[in-house]
User: What shape does this take?
Amino acid sequence: MAKGHLLSEEDVRVLDAEGLDRIWVAELELGEVGEDYAASVIAGEVGCGSLEIRLVAGGRANLVTTENCCVLVDDMLLRQVNQTGCLAVATSPNFAFAAAWQRVATVKTTPFAVPQQEMEAMRSFLRERGPLLQGRPIRHPVVAVLYCDPLQGERARQLFEGIMRTRLDRDGTGVTFVLTAPEEEGALARALEHLLRHKPTIVLIASTTAPAGPSDAVGRAMERIGCKIERFLAPVEPGNLLLLAYAGDVAVLSAPGCFRSPKSNVVDLLLPPLLARYRVTAAEVASLGHGGLLQ
Assistant: This one.
């Protein structure tokens, strides 16, 4: 019988048959609620999106995804909740990819009983400020890839295509549209315009050279077709030379060198939210520095 098990008459008969004539129990006092009930109530306010709650014995409720998702976490709100002392909430990292039926959060209350007043206060707080976690679904993303090289775009495709496939497989997707182009402003702009006509979720630019920033051929091509540059440079290693822009709602991402190896880099951190059609901001890229030294 697990901690927090509610004794029944049958349990008493079993215990008696085992020769146990005395056991220790916990009884709820006035103004207290059981740990399992409290965990389920709080879990119902913690998350939203493609999630469901699964109760576990001992005052614990897990949140699991119901489809492939990107996990979005409000880190500041999570910290405030965990400072209250009546419960603890653990989540997957912000921007993490989660396959269907994966656990992405767990809510644990104090053992046996929780003051009802504290539970109601936490529920009201989360209803006002929360939720602190979102399972944002990744549904049929359309990925376009532009391979480019100073001499011949096809060379970049030959170098990077296998690694690109491996990287996207991790997030349960693949490439829908592919173009190659020489690394020259006009050619890149024409190729980007052609890809954007297909209304992709994201355009990945896989270049064989490291750009100097928005002023290089890739950056100038982005601006030439009306892209808004969101962020250049990321506090992530590997992946410092990230260039993120938006053509309307479509993310356009260049990360030179990051397609040479399947090892984790800035592309892996940003792909899940972008595939989930979440608009990553410059401030959110800046926040990647804590934990941005990837091994």
In short: Residues 25-137 form one domain. The first helix runs from residue 9 to 17. The longest strand covers residues 103-109. The chain has two domains: 25-137, 143-289.
